[in-house]
Design a protein that fits this description.
With 467 residues, the protein is an all-alpha fold. It has 3 domains: 184 residues, Growth Hormone, Chain: A, CATH 1.20.1250; 51 residues; 207 residues, Growth Hormone, Chain: A (Up-down Bundle), CATH 1.20.1250. Helix content is 76%, strand content 0%. The C terminus is likely disordered.
Length: 467
């Protein structure tokens, strides 16, 4: 329960911070949407870059220490976020939170599996995964209720939970490590990856203000491209790279990650767009927004179960493509329906439910397909990397949405800007539709085909829980 509570807390963070996003903006007077986007993007960038390296370090040096350290960082970062005197202080402490989450997420499942008898491990993983699904379902409502007091409470709530989890872990969770992991992971490569994503996000969100052809925008995109090339070079040359080169030769793994990137861009943009529309255009309160958001996530576990049953006779690529298409259809339905006056049941809810069904079909299928063609010793690494791809996709989705929305004045301009945003979201989801067909493995790789030394992070996010 302790380890599941940590997974629940980390997953809850995505939804409660998104619901609090407009209130955070109003608290810091003069902050633009492009600046505010770093409250979300800084977290996702650092989490994506550190997830695999910290998982491998935990396997080598001890998962319990990294889990407790991750909990401590996440808890301290949460308290500091609540006390932030300005926007950039909040962004800095979100980075601290993300580093903690990147340490505690991979280790929580690894410790759980080590402490569970083999015959009970499948059930333990299902419970661990269900904690993430539960967080996604209750997160919008919890976030809305907390923001009624003050947006700082979406961070303060993590503090007592984190402290209790640290004490309980010290008392009752046995340590574990993987003696076969001997190499130090490429931390420089992780930093270069974070720099590439950050520079790209900076260019996207500031492009409308700076001008797309301005020197600052060109430099941002050039830095992103150069850092991406350096990261690719480190993959080829480092003894323990963030992404092992052999994995890139597995067709289903590559296309699953491409699809995760596109689909998560649509997901991240869609969640923020709906929240911004309801709070800034319809003037919903945070708690009303939370209840309005909740039906979509509630459908995710239902359709995840349906996708699991379909997987026995339908190729994974077809299921994921159907989910991506439903997500695109949901966004189009919303953009064609919304008007100046709040008619939630007619204008937001139908498209939001269709999108939730799409997430339930696509997300677990993408994650399972990423590891389906890998040898057993690589499944945890594959899960970690596809989770990293999802976080990068969320950054891109939020950044593109912010760039498209700009700074509209008046309802007509805002309506047009949001329509363009939802079209961009639908386009990202449709891109996922086309890439998903490459996910279905042609044949399952044999375990003996593993050409790499064992270098495994602790079973990282083998489920569809979203952050």
């Amino acid at each position: 329960m302790i380890l599941c509570a940590a997974a629940f807390m980390a997953t809850l963070d995505l939804f409660i911070v998104n619901v609090a996003f407009p209130d955070i903006g109003r608290s810091f007077h003069g902050a633009s949407l492009s600046d505010l986007s770093w409250v979300l993007n800084a977290y996702a960038i650092v989490y994506a870059a550190l997830l695999v390296p910290l998982g491998r370090l935990a396997d080598r040096y001890g998962r319990k220490a990294f889990f407790i350290g991750g909990l401590a960082l996440f808890t301290v970062g949460s308290a500091a976020c609540a006390a932030s005197p300005n926007l950039w202080g909040l962004v800095a402490f979100r980075v601290l939170q993300a580093a903690g989450a990147a340490a505690l997420t991979p280790t929580s499942l690894g410790l759980l599996l080590n402490a569970t008898p083999p015959e009970a491990r499948a059930r333990a993983v299902r419970i661990w995964a269900a904690s993430g699904a539960l967080a996604a379902a209750v997160g919008p409502v919890v976030g809305g209720l907390l923001v009624q007091a003050a947006w700082q409470w979406v961070f303060i709530v993590n503090v007592p939970v984190g402290l209790l989890a640290i004490v309980a872990t010290l008392r009752s969770v046995p340590d574990s490590r993987d003696g076969a992991v001997t190499r130090v992971p490429d931390l420089v490569g992780a930093a270069v990856l974070a720099g590439a994503i950050g520079a790209l996000a900076l260019g996207l969100v500031k492009g409308p203000d700076w001008g797309w052809s301005s020197g600052r925008a060109v430099v941002s995109f050039a830095v992103a491209a150069l850092a991406a090339l350096v990261f690719a070079q480190r993959i080829r040359t480092h003894a323990a790279p963030v992404i092992e080169p052999a994995l890139l030769r597995v067709r289903s793994f590559v296309w699953s990650n491409v699809t995760a990137l596109a689909f998560s861009a649509a997901f991240g943009g869609s969640l923020l767009a709906v929240i911004l529309w309801m709070q800034n255009v319809w003037h919903y309160s945070a708690v009303r927004t939370g209840f309005a958001i909740a039906p979509g996530p509630l459908l995710v576990p239902v359709f995840a179960a349906i996708s699991d049953r379909l997987a026995r006779r339908v190729p994974a690529g077809v299921i994921a493509a159907a989910g991506c298409t439903l997500s695109a259809l949901g966004s189009v339905l919303v953009l064609l329906s919304v008007g100046p006056h709040a008619h939630y049941a007619a204008e937001i809810l139908p498209g939001w439910l269709i999108g939730g069904a799409g997430v339930g079909l696509a997300l677990p299928t993408i994650i399972s397909s990423a590891t389906a063609g890998l040898p057993p010793a690589r499944t945890a690494t594959g899960s970690a990397i596809v989770t990293m791809s999802r976080q990068i996709g969320i950054v891109l989705g939020i950044s593109i949405l912010v760039a498209v929305l700009g700074k509209p004045v008046g309802y007509a301009n805002a309506h047009r800007a949001f329509q363009h945003g939802w079209w961009a979201i639908a386009g990202a989801a449709l891109l996922g539709t086309f890439t998903a067909f490459g996910m279905s493995p042609r044949r399952r790789a044999a375990p003996s085909a593993d050409p790499l030394p064992v270098m495994e992070p602790a079973s990282v996010l083998a489920t569809g829980a979203v952050r």
